[in-house]
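Long-time lurker. I teach an intro course on protein structure, and each term I like to show students one example going from raw sequence to a predicted 3D structure in token notation. This year I'd like something fresh instead of my usual example. Would anyone be willing to generate the tokens for the chain below so I can use it in lecture? Attribution to the forum is fine with me.
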Amino acid sequence: MKIKSLRRKSFFLMLFGLGLLLASTAQAATAEFPAFEYHEIDKIGNRMGQTSLIDVDKDGKLDWIAGCSHGDIWWFQYQAPDRWVRHKIGSGVGTEVGGVAMDVDGDGWVDQVSGSTWFRNPGRADGKEWTRYSNGAINNSHDVVAADIDGDNKPEVVMMQDTAGLFWYKIPGDPTKPWESHSIGSAVHAGIAPRGVGDIDGDGDLDIVRSTGWYENVDGKGTVWKWQGNIDGGHGGRFKDATRVWVVDLDRDGHNDVVMTDCDTEIGPRRVHWFRNKDGKGGQWERHVIAAGKGDLHTLAVGDFNNDGHLDVFSGEGPLGGTGTGGKHRWFIWENVDGRGLTWKEHMILEGPECHEAVVGDVDGDGDLDICSKPWNGNLHVYLRNMLVAHRGQSPGDLSFVPEMEPVPEMNLPTAAARWSDAEKAKYADDLGRAVAEWRKRVPEIQRQLTPERVRSLSRWAKTQTEQYKAVPDLGKTILAPLGADPQNERLVLEGTIDTLPTHSPLVTRWLKVYLLYDLHEKSIARITITIRGQVLE
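-- Reply from a regular --
Happy to contribute to a lecture. Here you go:
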């Protein structure tokens, strides 16, 4: 039997760096809602999209990517809240707005897909532009999303352009060759990004939501699609039915729901709303309005912004109108007060510049969600630092809980322990001992916070079975072993299995895991990550 990582349903989540998007910290639930500290990243560009927050240079920090329509694209290296270093990726991108950062060629480095072009990351920040390739995809895409459409545990790319249609592309073994095109169906101006791909009908493969309905992946291979036009989204504005879409289990009932904002419209109602997947199969939807009467909401992100364990919704007003003083643009987070999406509290976190294609992630590594954005009209790139953890005086980057199958940056290492020489084993022996000793000192504190409820909240697969999980073992008995090292950045990673979890199939094994990121220079643990990982037997 062959063993492979259980990654299919959530590969597209890697685009946002993450394991960071929905991760919560080790704080107990609180009614506190954070303030956001404003920082300027840079001033460059105009008519921009292609945004991502992802670790471009493997330094353990999220970097910002943005590029101009059919023009230049850059990545901005995070060094401090007020210090970002700009690097040019390249020119002549083959896209209007859509783009995604992902590992195209499988070399472990994040590349950039921008419509009909992609750029290969050289693995160094030496001032040279990345090599540009054409991929044969549609040239003027508005939405671009990466996901495992055919179930081969490799990323494909979904693209949409209103006059060309909706397509997905399979990347060949040699990604410099033309990509294999597959038609899905008709298109609207915008309506599948940033996260409109997910399992809607609970059959284990990925479907695609598009504003007013969803395309069912009938055969699970992406070759047969069936349109289900049963979602009451969209609008009659300038770009009819243009929306931002996010597939997520918002009410934590085990079924993926849909969150949506109206965008690219100057007329009402300009809503934020979510659709509950009542039957768990995408056949019946129940709409809940979060807010209405806002501006052009050309941004959407779902995540836990106050670390209370509930998924909140973020958006901001874009190029076709703001509702603030003198037409200023307002940025909002709607707090999911009851955790079930039935009671919401609005927080305006900024009034001023356009918000367009913003993305969220833990930029400063302190365990809460930050925001990066830029305008469509203009050149101002901004970073809003979430001050939740900073105001509590918690040490940054200390402890995080990452939901099942979302990426853990610590696992991406240039030197795996399995391939260490005897000399390398001897070199790291003392540091491994120090890391284990520090972990043992932290065990009582972490044990109090790693409750069965916390473990259940991390589950994305086998949610029904995981509801029966009642007790977390003694963390002091967890055996830690080296996973690998990053000598260039002076980091060491240890891995431990805390428990074996309930599963939905005899072919699937799931574990509660801990990863320790150890700083070789500081001689201390920099971050502890607890998550769920799995394997499939074939």
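Some talking points for your students: The two ends are 5 Å apart (CA to CA). The helical segments are 388-392, 422-449, 452-458, 463-466.
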